[in-house]
Design a protein that fits this description.
By secondary structure, the chain is mostly helical. Among the domains are: about 100 residues, Serine Threonine Protein Phosphatase 5, Tetratricopeptide repeat; about 70 residues; about 70 residues. Helix 5 runs antiparallel to helix 6, helix 17 runs antiparallel to helix 18 and helix 31 runs antiparallel to helix 32. The N terminus is likely disordered.
Length: about 600
């Protein structure tokens, strides 16, 4: 009866019910195994897939035939549950189908829909793994869409390069109904990968351009630096798509683009429209904050601060509070009001890191330093360095503090700070060492100055090196170390960029060195070249040297004539005038004119 019900049908009772009754009544009957197989088929043919699987689960032993049915039915149930949106159930059935692998037709399809299930659940990595496996399968019904689906999975995972490759591959043979969408996603991939020209081209070519493509094109233009083009495209979007979901965002982005062009008035006009019309609370809050920042750039700091204080009360204890505090920071920094900034933040329950206060102190110090307000710069550098005795800004801060001390007539403190910079290799070492040397020179401490100048003479900076050579030349001359003085003088003379006065000083020192060494001919030539100097002191010394060598050559009358020229033309140079009179007295003695010699000596004594 049960077999007949299956073979020819039963108008009174369904075949599965009749078969189940027999199995239940005669469980030990030899026909039960065969009837269980018939039960599976009866459920299958009636479309009752869940009961089919339940019947299969009751078998004591599976066969290739039942496994094949199990695989197919599990696949069908999986896709059925997928279409209903029951992704957990779909995953369960599809995994069951894949575990059997009897029918090669259903295996890739089950894997495909399992990947789709993972995609719908947001498990993109698992979806990608399974989609990628299917690339090696020659053919299955869903194969044409594989690159499209894989492109989306990579896109959702923010792996835009891989997404781009798959969308490009898909568009070689797309389904017509998916072609435009795939092109748009390809454009989005170009946009995300900063291939902005390619993105704009795709958005321009998309069929039936809409507000989305217009907005994306505008954003791409903005990232290209074409803020004018961005503004024009967004204005076109607003006028073309009156009720677009992108209208508020478009107005906000127009405002941002105007601000990037320093057109803060137009920027605020659009921020005002966002504030007035948008229902997006996040957009409105940000528009209010950026409007206040525009007031700062318009030099309306009082208005900006008033707005920010009001916003602080409106958004206190929200995520916007920190943005408001940061927006207010330039106002307090400009006014050197660190305490005011701390209070503003505290009133909004925003905690400021000590590092931020340190940064403000440093920036404030730099502002005062740049304006040559060294007195105020000192206090802020001191605050910063007290809290930051180490760090990347250490040597700059110490150098500028030392320089500020110097400029405020405090050489003792300046030396103390600058020596700490000059004695360690850093970007400010040469500048600090130069100032230390200058301070020591001004104090008449040539010995300590010389230590720093010797190091500076090896500097890679040509100007610093030249300065050191000039000062070392002077010190060597003062110390009567004529060999060194002459060496440094040669180095100074080889630098044509030196001023005339420095070059003449080098020539004088070299001439003195030659005189001291007894190289009379070379010394006379060197001094003769200085007789026409516009520097009266240099010229006076040159004429004295001429008279000296005339005396030495027993040309006493000529020597006196030279001394008369010196006295007439360079009367203001008392030192060389006095030395010349002594020489003149010697000349008179040599000429046996004791009266004139005595008279000349009286003039010197008087």
């Amino acid at each position: 009866y049960a077999k007949l019900s299956y073979d020819i049908g039963n108008p009174y009772e369904s075949a599965p019910i009749v078969i189940q009754k027999f199995i239940k009544k005669y469980p030990s009957n030899s026909q039960v195994p065969e009837l269980k197989k018939l039960l599976i088929k009866s459920y299958l043919y009636s479309g009752n897939y869940k009961e089919t699987l339940a019947a299969i689960d009751q078998l004591s032993n599976s066969t290739p035939e039942t496994n094949k049915i199990d695989q197919e039915v599990s696949y069908l149930l999986g896709t059925e549950e997928f279409n209903k949106g029951n992704y957990d159930a779909a995953e369960k059935y599809l995994l069951r189908s894949l575990a059997l692998n009897q029918n090669k037709e259903f295996t890739p399809r089950a894997l495909y829909w399992l990947a789709q299930t993972y995609y719908q659940e947001g498990n993109y990595p698992s979806a990608i793994v399974r989609f990628e496996k299917l690339k090696t399968v020659d053919s299955f019904p869903e194969k044409q869409q594989l690159n499209y689906d894989l492109g989306y999975a990579y896109f959702k995972s923010k792996k835009f390069s891989q997404a781009q490759n798959n969308f490009e591959e898909y568009l070689k043979d797309p389904k017509p109904e998916f072609k435009n969408d795939a092109k748009l996603r390809l454009g989005d991939c170009y946009y995300a990968n900063n291939q902005l020209n390619e993105a704009i081209s795709v958005y321009n070519d998309s069929e039936g351009g809409n507000d989305y493509t217009s907005f994306q094109k505008a954003m791409a233009l903005g990232f290209k630096g074409d803020s004018v083009g961005k503004i024009a495209e967004l204005k076109k979007l607003i006028s073309t798509f009156n009720n677009s979901d992108y209208s508020d965002d478009a107005q906000y982005e127009i405002a941002s683009a105007y601000a990037s062009n320093d057109d803060f008035n137009n920027s605020n006009d659009y921020f005002n429209q966002v504030i007035k019309s948008s229902s997006d609370e996040d957009l409105v809050a940000n528009a209010k904050i950026y409007r206040a920042q525009n007031y700062i750039d318009l030099n309306q700091s009082d208005k900006a601060l008033a707005d920010l204080r009001q916003l602080g009360q409106e958004y206190k204890n929200t995520a916007y509070a920190e943005k408001i505090v940061q927006a207010a920071r330039p106002i307090f920094t400009k006014n050197s009001d660190t305490a005011g900034y701390q209070k503003f933040a505290s009133d909004l329950n925003v905690k400021i890191d000590a590092s931020e206060i340190d940064e403000i102190n440093l920036n404030t110090a730099k502002q005062f330093y740049a304006k040559k307000d060294y007195k105020n710069a000192v206090s802020y550098y001191e605050k910063y360095l007290t809290q930051n005795p180490t760090g990347e800004n250490l040597y700059q801060a110490k150098y500028e503090l030392g320089e500020s001390y110097f400029q405020t007539q405090n050489p003792t403190k300046s030396l103390l700070v600058l020596q700490g910079v000059a004695n360690v290799q850093n970007d400010y070492q040469d500048d600090a060492a130069t100032r230390v040397a200058q301070i020591y020179i001004s104090q008449g401490n040539s010995a300590d100055a010389k230590k720093y100048l010797l190091n500076l003479s090896n500097s890679s900076n040509a100007n610093v090196k030249n300065y050191a050579n000039v000062e070392l030349m002077k010190i060597s001359a003062d110390e009567k170390d004529f060999d060194q003085a002459e060496n440094y003088a040669d180095l100074v003379l080889n630098n044509s960029k030196n001023s005339t006065s420095v070059l003449e000083l080098a020539k004088v020192i070299k001439a003195r060195s030659l005189m001291n060494k007894g190289k009379d001919k070379e010394a006379q030539t060197a001094f003769a070249n200085l007789e026409k100097s516009s520097n009266t002191e240099v010229a006076a010394e040159a004429f004295y040297a001429k008279a000296f060598y005339q005396n030495k050559g027993k040309a006493f009358k000529s020597s006196n004539e030279t001394i008369f020229k010196l006295a007439n033309n360079y009367a203001s140079e008392e030192y060389w005038g006095a030395k010349s009179l002594v020489l003149m007295a010697q000349n008179y003695l040599a000429l046996k004119d004791n009266y004139q010699a005595s008279y000349t000596c009286d003039q010197i004594i008087a």
